[in-house]
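INTERNAL TRANSFER SHEET
From: sequence group
To: structure group
Subject: Protein white

Please process the attached sequence and return the structure record in the designated field. Keep the field labels unchanged so the import script can parse them.
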Amino acid sequence: MEPMRERSGSAVLPPSPEIVLSFHNVDVWSVPQISTWNRFLKLCRKANVGNAKHILQDVSGIVHPGEMLAILGASGAGKSTLMNVMTSRNLGKLKVSGRLMVNGKAIKRSTLAGISAYIQQENYFIGTLTVREHLRFQAILRMGKEVKHQQRMERVEEVIQELGLSNCSDTIIGIPGRIKGISGGELKRLSIASEVLMDPPLLFFDEPTSGLDSFLAQQVVALMKSLAEKGKTVVSIIHQPSSEVFAMFDRILLLAEGKTAYLGQAKHGIPFFQQMGYECPLNYNPADFYVHTLAIIPGAEEECRKRVLKICSAFRDSEEGKALEVGLTGDAVVDGVSNDLSDANEAGDEMKFKYKMSWFGQFRAVIARCWIANLREPFIIKLRLFQSLMLALLMGIVYLKQDYNTVEGLMNLNGVVFLFLFHASCQNALAVFNAFCEELPVFLRENQSGMYRTDAYFISKVVAEFPFSIFFPAVFTAVTYFMIGLNEKIERFLVCTLIMIIVANVSTAFGYMISCVTRSIGLALTVGPPILVPYMLFGGFFINNNSIPVYFIWLKYISWFYYGNEALMINQWKDLEIDCGDSIGCPPSGDAILEYFHFDKDNELRDILVLVVMVVVYNLIAFLSLLFRASRRT
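Return from structure group:
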């Protein structure tokens, strides 16, 4: 083992402990997924590990403070699975056995999350924030109440300086294809900065150089090296590193077919393979040589597997392999804590975090971020306002001052009422189909890191959107109502505005539900609009309430178009006298129109209350869907 590097802790946070991470005899199987149909038919009563794929086989290793370990191997070698085991993430569909220890002691998943940082391959951010705003948000939620606000901000500035983000600290992060932001290298450094705010002693990197050119990749790995030199324990999956990048790693772990092919000093890897008869060509990248030597080539699978088995067996019997085994078996388990990863899986699949901030503190931080995100995209707000005004003016001009003394005028007014509903429903539902889909990766990562609760996040998003669900339908109604000449009583105008606002919130909640249930914006836009069609069809305008087939009657009672249409029609026609003279087919009163549509004028309050209940129900379904997604990721 190399001499320990001098630690350089944060000036704000207390120095973090030094971590020795070890894993011993790790075996992982993919558990066969049994369909509900097969369970019902009892065709497959129990998952049999013997029929499962053996992903990792007896993998062991150890990493010391101040070291940087690179995990290499061909595709399918088990690199990501081993990283998941070490970080205790995404193990729900896997059967895992073995020991995972820190400083010789078994460790629980929740404890591991508190002392480590996991820098994922993908860079997920709220792109409308600046670099400094993002880091401040992270600091507020990740640092405990005992840390003063001023100290949090000092830590943010400290990290910005350490990771070379000063030049872009006030630059918007950006959204690909929409908002120009910081560069790829700066994005990767920001990912690292987000995780090192709490100065964790253990760092995991998942392919940190993926998608970067050679220059940026070298910069990122140099940054990782500097963190290791401060006494941190660094573990990284690395994909196709250049020879310069590979030379920065102290130790390497080579995986092949789920087995350990080599673990030791990077400079000793080539001599080990030479002893096995595999010579690395002169001036050839050692990383590429290892991957090619251990890869399973299509068409030559049997020969390649024999070579892999030979190398893995040779390492196990080598001095390095034996020394590793002796060192790991000497690790003790103390305090009666279970050292079996399979026990840990069965005992607690769900991470239990002790949140650093109170619920209200989480809510306040997330809603502030939501407001900043909304205000940073004024084009979207302006576009929605433009749509509301233009459609309002168009409808107002087309139906300008309708005549109550003609059958045509009365029919047009009935059509206007339904168009009000259609506009409020479509505009607000379509506007939020992307509300949760777009931020889902960010939410899952931050929620899994214990930054905030699912309910705090969901309520913050709903509250941040709520003013728009009031403002836009109110503007639309105010412009069109008097242009068209709907019921002139001011109290009827106010009730109409109230109903429009409630309908807008129902459709917004419906949009949230679709956004949370579906996995992507494309899927939400594919699924959402077709669901609106039957709701609209049974709203009482296209088909009379009295002629709906009995087997479709349930659709009427779950359609907010029905309750909204009835409420608006009652508000428009209740107790209104009509004088069409001798016109054929002209109703004598507004009550007659309601009777024709089979609307009960005493149902107005009921309809409004049902619409309010629908707002709650759709939001509840959306929240439960989001909660389910969050629980599935642990």
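Handover comment: The two ends are 34 Å apart (CA to CA). Confidence is low (pLDDT under 50) at residues 1-6, 46-50, 331-353.
Transfer complete.
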